[in-house]
Amino acid sequence: MKNDVESGQNNKKALIARARTVGWLLFLLAIAVFGKLIRVQYYDEFKGKTWAEYSAKNDLKIDTIPAMRGNIYSVDDRLLATSLPYYYVGLDTKVADSAYFRNNIDELSSLLAKSFGEHTAAGYKNKIMRYRVSKSKRYLRLKSRQISHLDREKIKKWPFFVKNRKGGGGKFETIYRRYKPFSPMADRTIGGIDPKSGRGYIGLEASFDKNLEGKAGIGWVEMVEGGMKIPVGDALNVQPEAGRDIYTTLDMNFQDRAEIALRRKLIESKANYGCVIIMEVATGEIRAMANLTKRGEGKYEEVFNYAVAGGADPGSTFKLPTMMALLEETKMNPDQITVNTGAGSVRFRGTSINDSKRGGHGVLTATQVFEKSSNIGVHMLMQRYFFSKPDTYLSYLKKFHLTTPTGIHMKGEKPPYIKDRTSKQWSAYSLTFMSYGYEMSMTPLQTLALYNAVANDGYWVRPMIVREIRNAEGVEDKIPPYVEDKPIASPETIKKVKTMLEGVVKAGSAKNISSELYQIAGKTGTAQKLINGIYTPGKYYTSFAGYFPADKPKYSAIVIIDTPQGSGANYTLYAGSVAAPVFKEVADRIYAYDVSIQKPIKDTLPETSKDVKWAGRSADLNIISKELKLTPVPEGSEYAAASLLKKGKTNWQSRNMSSRDVPDLQGMAMRDALYILENKGFNVTFKGSGKVVEQSLPPGTSAAGNKTILLTLQ
């Protein structure tokens, strides 16, 4: 029994030993095979090249097929950005059989020379023939640049590209190129694509890249010389999935008006850069976002998004939250509280605080302090009510949403910098300087969000620039407006500051932009620039923030003009003379465009316009008179007007449009009136439709003064 057990143990040990030996032999064999493969692939040569090199040139591989990137649309569904396919044209010279090649090479060469023109027909033929007989080359690009989709459809009918059992070899390599129909308008806001990665790197292209990029497909490609990848057939293992479409809140009509007004003022003032944002009050939807930077004498381009990422001292536009904090804390009647601002300059702890008006404002009510933008007045009110409790003032700034980003769905928003007393930069002057917009940093969008909240009866609205994301089946994600459920201040405070903001335009620092048609409410801001750590007189960051129409606000807006230049007095470089006029020009255009905010048009025509039936260019009117068999238009005048007399007779009168004075436009179509006035340098607004029945500047008025005119059409 003992011998049997020992025998069994010995057999088991022998089996284990043999298994180990076999295992080691297999392991050594695997290493040998692997080594041989490495040697064959990378070291053994055939006709001077390794097999790895041949594989890289001629092997079929699985590769990703790029997806069509999604489109970006405006609020009225106009295309803002899309991907257009372009193609490299190539020929695999070894695919067609000999007979087909011989019978069609001349026709192909002739078509290439005629369409592409990079070589003669003989030159194309010789090059194709060399590749045909070469042992190392086979694929030839026939044109150095890409072609359009329309060109591709034409080429598909050529020899070697048309489907033929014995032919073939023609190839198209697809390249997608981003196209913006309205470029350069809103370029920085819409964004751009990195040409190497195909990913969005700025603006909406970057912020919504994951939605726009889609999902790449997978398909077979042939790797040929030069590292080029040639598609093999049309069948793909995995079809690419197109990106989602982004529907923004931008309106290109508003964007156009904003950029035109901004560019004109930047060129006039030779400023460094400028920004305009237009936002809908109730929803926070951004209708326009213009950012222009100086790129040479008189040349401005969109190269940086100041609206979202450009932080700076806001200056006197920050007096709005300061006044709101004062009203919330004290419940004062701002028309009864007064301060003596003196002769325009006071000393505070060894530092001068100055007002822009020479000689000062003297005694002012709190309302007048705001309307006239008195730094001294704000300082005195702060000294009276908040110097003993600075943390209370800072808590109001937090309540007004001024210490955090707006949260707009765009990458790159710069957080506001509003320090508190724990900051190392806090000093004995900080509370005063902060109260009128210094020692801090805010973006134009963050400032606008506060003014928009005031216009919206105190309810803060998050700015938004994308409203929907759609796929082929419909809406995939709808982004609703975000409105705080509690107001940032009491109704009494909001009502008081609204009156103050209207007062700024009626009788304060922006009275030059007051309009007879509608009321603008807003605040100017002129901040000295911080250069090398020193606030520098004569170098200003100017702004105007506000909303309109003041009685029923629909739009809020902010204008920034940085470092305007001029040879006149300093006040010509202040916000009231630089930023505020841009705001008014944009608001005037929007008021004329959006009939929903216009006041009702009178039903009755002015007596002077009842008899005028037609007016315009004599050549046009002569065609009408002949068609209607009326009295001919008299010769010798470029413009004329007509009224009907009894028995169908027409009374024609010449109109003189060459005078520098305001012309008589009654009876004219808007097209003719606009052409005449804009050539004379007028800023034209209008209401209604049809023919001109009334003009705000009477005919014959000197055009040397007011250059803004309102036309009533009916």
From TrEMBL:
Transmembrane parts of this sequence: 21-38
Gene Ontology biological process terms, A to Z: cell wall organization
Domain of life of the native organism: Bacteria
Gene Ontology molecular function terms on file: carboxypeptidase activity; penicillin binding
UniProt entry keywords in alphabetical sequence: Carboxypeptidase, Hydrolase, Membrane, Protease, Transmembrane, Transmembrane helix
InterPro entries per UniProt: Beta-lactam/transpept (IPR050515), Beta-lactam/transpept-like (IPR012338), PASTA_dom (IPR005543), PBP_dimer (IPR005311), PBP_dimer_sf (IPR036138), PCN-bd_Tpept (IPR001460)
PANTHER family given in the database record: PEPTIDOGLYCAN D,D-TRANSPEPTIDASE (PTHR30627), PEPTIDOGLYCAN D,D-TRANSPEPTIDASE FTSI (PTHR30627:SF1)
Record protein name field: Transpeptidase family protein
Gene Ontology cellular component list: plasma membrane
SUPFAM superfamilies in UniProt: beta-lactamase/transpeptidase-like, Penicillin binding protein dimerisation domain, Penicillin-binding protein 2x (pbp-2x), c-terminal domain
Localization annotation: Membrane
UniProt organism field: Dyadobacter chenhuakuii
First-listed, main subcellular location of the protein, grouped into a coarse class: membrane
